[in-house]
């Protein structure tokens, strides 16, 4: 019989699994370096408002470290991370490299669908150059043909193809540029070969079923609790090289072995699962919905799956960066505000220079309201705290308020903000 969980218990599992239950006691780079392994994947994105998204993910969990320290923790030497296609383009712990063999095989099997497949000559030239030293696409002759940003040169196409099938790896970025190296030069040998692995078309690694199982277990560990769709969404396990029915069979085997536990969550209708290790913590009554108070990147893994956000927190959340400006409701990069286990508001942030000072601007603040249209006092207080916390992190001297929704909350937010900045 499935274990029955309340919605608050499901929230507690999710918040703790995501490392957002409290600010880490230690804010050293060593503690910061533990964030990626605990999350399993941190998404990268080109949009930068207060900071790059992967930096905001780390900030939300360890606000007293700098952006420079975040970058140092991710792109260390010798490398302990790599970049690959997981939920999207993500930074991943190096130990997960073998389990993406299934995706590398998928790319190879669908070679004919790759856009602008580079010539064999270009591929040979790129590999020969990388055998001498790691390099960016620019250093190898240029990333673009000269058109729009997606108009890749053949060299860039070769690098991305080799990255997709695992012959090249990215373990470092300089600025926003990938640094490419041959996989055998950057990935430890024990993560490249094992007697128990298979070789398919030259790609060595665990079998596809082993890979899918490992990625499902990683998903439930980082979710705490989730539906089948939630689990599949973490590493996008349906549609690359695998189909949903096959993933479902492997999930059923993981349930049968006890590595994933079936549960029910009151109010949820789809089959739901939980991490046995997090359930043990829940049994010890050591998990609560108390959370850190922070702004979350739209690409934070707590809010990746929009349907799950609605189920857990009751927020219908969407990123509007790609919505025409006139049609935006919440703002270009509206960031959910996490406070006391709830998503209480959305803030669309920015920064402006005012003489020698920098101000963080909350261009739009939209509060979640009760059925009667009331904004709880604790939501206003928490949002003010989150704004000041973010402003401090980006070295802004003050916070300025823009459009507040509902307008009735503006005086209270201004007062709470003034108190939080004292």
Can you tell me about this structure?
With about 425 residues, the protein is α+β, with helices and mostly antiparallel strands. The protein is built from 16 helices and 16 strands. The protein has a five-stranded mixed β-sheet, covered by helices on one side. The longest helix is centred in the C-terminal third of the chain and has 17 residues, at about 375-395. The chain starts with a strand and ends with a helix.
Relevant terms:
single chain; 422 residues; alpha+beta; 5-stranded mixed sheet; 4-stranded mixed sheet; 16 helices; 16 strands
A few lines on this structure:
Helices cover 36% and strands 20% of the residues.
End-to-end distance? 53 Å
Shape: globular
Major beta sheet, strand line-up: 12-13-14-15-16
Structural class comes to alpha+beta
| Arithmetic mean pLDDT | 92
Indicate the radius of gyration in whole angstroms.
Answer: 23 Å
Structure annotation, total helices: 16
Share in β-strands: 15-25%
